[in-house]
Every structure is written in C-alpha cells, then in structure tokens.
C-alpha cells in the first residue's frame, strides 16, 4: 500500500483502559509498518493527567527518540466554535507544547475538534477564533488542523477559508483534517465525496479512515455509509499525497480489525500515493 498510513490513539481506548502501555502499542504499530500516530487527548495513558487529560510534554518528548521511524502529532477536543474561555486557551497552550514535544525534527502539528458546539455556528466568531489559534502556532513554526464534527458543513468551510485568507502568506499554518465519516453522521448529512471535491489539496493536512452505519462508528473500515472507493478517486484526482489515519471504533481485536480494514481498502483499490 503506497499510502503514508497511521492511526489515532483512540483506536486503543480498550487496550489503554486495560492497562496496556502506550509505548507497547506504538511499538506494535511500528512493527505493522504504520508510520504516523495521532496522539488523541484522553487516550495517552500515562502521558497525560488530571480531570482534563492534559498531555505531559516533558514525558512525550521521549517518544520521537524511542520511535525514530514514527511521526507524531497531538489531537485535542477544544470548543473553538464558541467564545474561547481562559480554560480553552490553557488547554490549547498545553496541546501546543505537547505538539512541539512529539514533533522531533518535524514540524509541530496540533489538531483540534469541537465536539460540543451545535449544528449552527457563528461564522464571524469562528473566523476570529481560527485566526487567533493558527497565529498561536507561529512561535513554534507549527501547524493547526481543525476537524469538522457535527456542525453544518458550508458554514464551517466558509469560516475556515475566510480565516486562511486573513492569514495571508501564513495560510498553510491552518489546514483541514478531512473525516468523511463525521460528515455522514452529522445533521443534514451531505455526500462526503462531493465535500472532498470541494477542498483544495493544499487545504488538507490528513484524512481519517473509518466507517459508520446507523450513526455508529464500526470496528473496521468496510462497506457502509462512506463510499471509500469514491473518496479515494477524488483524493487522487486532487493530487493528495498526505497521510491517512485509521480511527476505527476501539475493540479488544483492534489489530485484526486493522488487518481487515487494509484488506478491504486493497479490494476496492483505495490506494493513495505518498510523498517521495
């Protein structure tokens, strides 16, 4: 498979709750030739602490040294579609420091998703928040990715693009994590392949691989609400060369479900070309 493939650490929620160490899980991912791990807040094991699962940057800085073949980024739930509170800004600051810690020699990368704000968003407020959050990554020459959750697609995309325009020559500091499954599970769901075609290739930082049926995320990528064959065709037409990360529902058989997912993607010829 030519894709630069990885996974989001919430795939390991069951394993981490059972006491398995994050390092051991990353090691198994490396053995299986996965190359990117998105470290999701709430699924970092001993590398986070407190009621808000704050990532521990000092400990996380060891991961690039222990796993030199892997790339890492940090993902957090922050309600960036509403007025940012002091607590929100503190959380983003912790995420930024963690992103720097796990970057190693690569560019720090922080992804945010808002799981709390409603379907309708304030486009002007979102625009201002995204500009502020993207500019906050400038001090570490980092990148901010935002992920669409349950919100109305057109308003979300409009705010994202207006923020990139406001950033000017720094626009690529703000990018989009494309998750077709989220689109299918949102109110007023739209065709995810049409949504993918509405994006420019330089707007996309990563693609999340998962499948859903009847509003439930499945344990493997298979047939379901998302037509991954069409999505793959669109991404290849766009010239997308970035990473794809599995974010399947966590289960005790996660590795078998990953293998099943890879077999399915090969069967439907979902093959993306990675950067040389």
Fraction of residues in H or I helices: 25-40%
Q: What is the percentage of strand-forming residues? A: 15-25%
**The CATH topology of the domain at 34-207 and 225-240 is what?**
TIM Barrel
Name the structural class. Answer: alpha/beta
Separate helix tally: 11
Report the order of strands and helices: EHHEEEHHEHEHEHEHHEEEHEH
What's the CATH class label of the domain at 34-207 and 225-240? Alpha Beta
Low-confidence stretches: none
First-last Cα distance: 14 Å
Tell me which CATH architecture of the domain at 34-207 and 225-240 applies here: Alpha-Beta Barrel
Largest sheet: 8 strands, parallel, barrel
Average predicted local confidence, pLDDT: 94
- What's the CATH superfamily of the domain at 34-207 and 225-240, by name? Divalent-metal-dependent TIM barrel enzymes
Describe the 3D structure.
The chain has a domain of 190 residues: Alpha-Beta Barrel (TIM Barrel). With 276 residues, the protein is of the alpha/beta class. Strand 10 and strand 11 form a beta hairpin. The strands form three sheets. The protein has an eight-stranded parallel barrel with strand order 1-2-5-6-7-8-9-12. Helix 6 packs across helix 7. It has eleven helices and twelve strands.
């Amino acid at each position: 498979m030519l894709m630069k493939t990885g996974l989001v650490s919430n795939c390991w929620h069951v394993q981490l709750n059972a006491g398995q160490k994050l390092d051991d899980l990353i090691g198994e991912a490396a053995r299986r030739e996965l190359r990117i791990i998105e470290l999701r807040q709430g699924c970092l094991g001993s590398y986070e602490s407190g009621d808000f699962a704050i990532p521990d940057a000092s400990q996380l800085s060891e991961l690039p040294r222990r796993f030199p073949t892997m790339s890492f980024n940090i993902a957090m739930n922050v309600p960036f579609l509403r007025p940012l509170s002091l607590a929100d800004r503190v959380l983003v600051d912790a995420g930024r420091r963690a992103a720097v810690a796990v970057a190693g020699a690569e560019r720090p990368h922080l992804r945010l998703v808002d799981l709390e704000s409603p379907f309708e968003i304030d486009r002007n407020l979102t625009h201002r928040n995204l500009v502020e959050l993207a500019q906050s990554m400038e001090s570490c020459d980092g990148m901010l990715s935002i992920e669409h959750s349950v919100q109305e697609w057109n308003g979300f995309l409009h705010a994202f693009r207006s923020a990139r325009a406001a950033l000017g020559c720094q626009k690529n500091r703000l990018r989009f994590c494309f998750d077709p499954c989220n689109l299918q599970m949102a109110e007023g769901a739209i065709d995810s392949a049409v949504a993918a075609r509405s994006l420019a290739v330089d707007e996309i930082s990563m693609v999340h691989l998962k499948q859903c049926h009847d509003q439930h995320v499945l344990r493997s990528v298979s047939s379901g609400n998302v037509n991954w064959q069409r999505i793959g065709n669109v991404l290849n037409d766009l010239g997308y060369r970035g990473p794809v990360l599995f974010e399947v529902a966590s289960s005790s058989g996660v590795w078998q479900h990953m293998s099943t997912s890879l077999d399915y993607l090969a069967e439907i010829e979902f093959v993306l070309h990675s950067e040389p």
